[in-house]
Design brief:
By secondary structure, the chain is of the alpha/beta class. The protein has eight helices and 14 strands.
């Protein structure tokens, strides 16, 4: 079987998680290109994979040339949020599939441009939401889709994490123009995605509020809450902050007519109305905790 040829642009903090997943998948993939504006970071990443080329050529035309030379089967984009569309469209229009870190970008217009570029290039565009692959999440999604859990009545999610001021000491975090927002778009985006993914329902109305309560050196919000109405009338109660003292375990609950599903980090508990209980823990094969564990451990899957 031919190995999947992979290129990576962006070799910062999250790249460590990808490197671990790629190493476990070494019989199926070959890393051929690592690009970062800091050559030393690209070299460190590339050094983990024999034959991988490192480069700091991040200008659009330079990247286009590199992709033409390497011709990867997929490009992974691990760049700051506001650069996702700019670099994704280059590869997509060349017919190279893209798997991009969340969020798609920082505006709806940019997200739409990425989708149109994929259509023009006749190729695939994916956004990383690795926590969808938690075993319990997959189980609950199927139970809701099949109707076994009955109608979705409501949902909630809570995220209480820690981001010290030093987290924002870089050239793009903490600013609307480059990060696009704070705790919602960067951290709690996973909470929102899991509720929508498991229920299969769209959000149709949001009444919410954001604030900068503790982290005063940033522009973006460090707290947010909302009542999100889903298309079947159920209300999703959302809360997130990143000024807690540690990274507390995320909680996501979905209440249905026939039972309630509660996800705590990666453990799913389903309590049926007839008294039965089901506990689903992650199976083997997920990426082990690498670096900062709040990214989730399912990139390999």
């Amino acid at each position: 079987m031919n190995k999947l040829r992979i290129a990576v642009i962006g070799c910062g903090r999250i790249a460590e998680v990808y490197a671990s997943a790629f190493e476990k998948l070494k019989d199926q993939c070959q890393i051929v290109l690592a690009v970062d504006k800091h050559l030393d970071r690209a070299e460190v990443f590339a050094g983990q994979f024999p034959g991988c080329i490192s480069s700091d050529k991040i200008e659009i035309q330079e990247l286009r040339t590199l992709l033409q030379e390497c011709r990867p089967d997929v490009l992974h984009i691990l760049l700051p949020h506001h650069l996702h569309c700019e670099y994704a469209t280059v590869a997509l229009e060349m017919g190279i599939p893209v798997l991009c870190e969340k969020p798609m970008d920082i505006s709806l217009e940019a997200a739409d441009r990425m989708i149109e570029a994929a259509k023009r290039g006749g190729t695939q565009l994916g956004i990383i939401f690795q926590n969808r692959y938690i075993d319990g999440v997959q189980r609950v999604r199927k139970l809701i889709q099949s109707g076994a859990l009955g109608k979705v009545k409501g949902a909630f999610s809570t995220l209480n994490w820690h981001r010290p001021p030093s987290y924002y000491e870089c050239d793009w975090k903490g600013r609307y123009a480059t990060e696009g927002g704070g705790v919602v778009i960067d951290q709690a985006i996973h909470s929102i995605d899991l509720v929508l993914y498991m229920t299969g329902l769209k959000a149709v109305r949001v009444q919410g509020h954001t604030a900068r309560r503790v982290l005063k050196t940033i522009e973006v919000e460090d707290e947010a809450d909302a009542a999100i109405t889903l298309e079947n009338g159920a209300v999703y109660s959302f809360f997130a902050c990143n000024y807690y003292t540690s990274n507390s375990m995320i909680r996501v609950e979905i209440d249905c007519e026939n039972g309630t599903a509660l996800l705590t980090f990666d453990k799913m508990e389903i309590r049926w109305r007839d008294g039965k209980e089901e506990v689903i823990l992650p199976s083997t094969g997920s990426t082990e905790d690498v670096g900062e564990n709040y990214w989730g451990t399912f990139h390999e899957k």
